[in-house]
Amino acid sequence: MSNIHVMDHPLIQHKIGVLRKVETGSKEFRELVSEIGMLMCYEATRNLPLEDVEIETPVAKTTAKQIAGKTLGIVPILRAGLGMVDAMLQLVPTAKVGHIGLYRDPDTLNPVEYYCKLPYDVSERDIFVLDPMLATGGSASEAIQFLKDKGVTRIHFLCLIAAPEGVERVRKDHPDVEMYIGALDEKLNDHGYIVPGLGDAGDRLFGTK
């Protein structure tokens, strides 16, 4: 589908393979999430609109390109999405950062919102929603809908690993959202974890389990 992009870059695939390993510790895990996030940011920003601007080099005046309109907005879904923020900011340092806090109810697997703070001009920006894992798709879909309710019309979703069930949920709920996926896995297990996946991304990022 034209709005679903599964990354096939060798560097991304190699780093995701290392990320999955049970023996990969928190320090290396954080570094890998950041590195993969940067590579995916490069791909996800490929079609941003450009405009001409006149500049002066040390030699002469010329016409250069710059990203048109407002700069970007980055919205990680707490807490695991935080691991991808610094990588995005290294490439787009003028981006504003918002946060949406959601957790998955262990019984119903439905998302529950507990925090939200967004840039005041969020509706004028291209927004990149970040979450390393797309499992059931409930949290991602809820976060995207929350942004739409705030007037955002240009939304991109980035995740490192996705289950087919989550991709289908977001695609069905938000067919207008561009999705960038590092690796598309086999399925969800009975506990809502991605198989083969990499376990709980938040716990592995922050060493809490």
What does this structure look like?
- The longest helix has 19 residues, at 26-44.
- Helix content is 31%, strand content 30%.
- Helix 5 (164-173) links the parallel strand 10 (155-162) and strand 11.
- The mean pLDDT is 91.
- The relative contact order is 0.17.
- The protein has a single domain, classed as Rossmann fold (3-Layer(aba) Sandwich).
- The strands form 3 sheets. Strands 1, 4, 5, 6, 7, 8, 9, 10 and 11 form a 9-stranded mixed sheet that branches. It has a two-stranded antiparallel sheet with strand order 2-3. The protein has a two-stranded antiparallel sheet with strand order 12-13.
- It contains 6 helices and 13 strands.
- With 209 residues, it is α/β, with parallel strands linked by helices.
